[in-house]
Amino acid sequence: MFGAIYVMTNGGPLGSTETIVFQMYQTAFGYTEFGYAAAMSTILFVTILLFSIVGTKIMRRGQS
């Protein structure tokens, strides 16, 4: 979705079409706050990792 949002709306009116990834891009390259963008991406990574681990455990439990 990053490409479509960037090309078509660039975040849309008042940021209504922004996603987390687009916000990280804007923070890093638009506002040159690379540390803050790196922290955002680390938190996103950990969140996705936790959801993946929990989802995998639930799926394995259902197969038994």
Number of domains: 1
Distance between the termini: 36 Å
SSE pattern: HHH
Biggest sheet statistics: none
Question: How many helices in DSSP terms?
Answer: 3
Structural class: mainly alpha
Strand content of the residues, in percent? Answer: under 5%
Helicity level: over 70%
Shape: elongated
> Rg, please?
16 Å
Residue stretches low in confidence (pLDDT < 50, at least 5 long) are none
Mean pLDDT: 91
Task: Tally the beta strands.
Answer: 0
Question: Any overview of this molecule?
Answer:
It is elongated and about 50 Å long. The protein is built from three helices and no strands. Helix 2 (20-30) runs antiparallel to helix 3 (34-63). It is mainly alpha-helical and 64 residues long. The chain has one domain (2-63).
In summary, what is this structure?
This protein is mostly helical.
List keywords for this structure.
single chain; elongated; mainly alpha; 64 residues
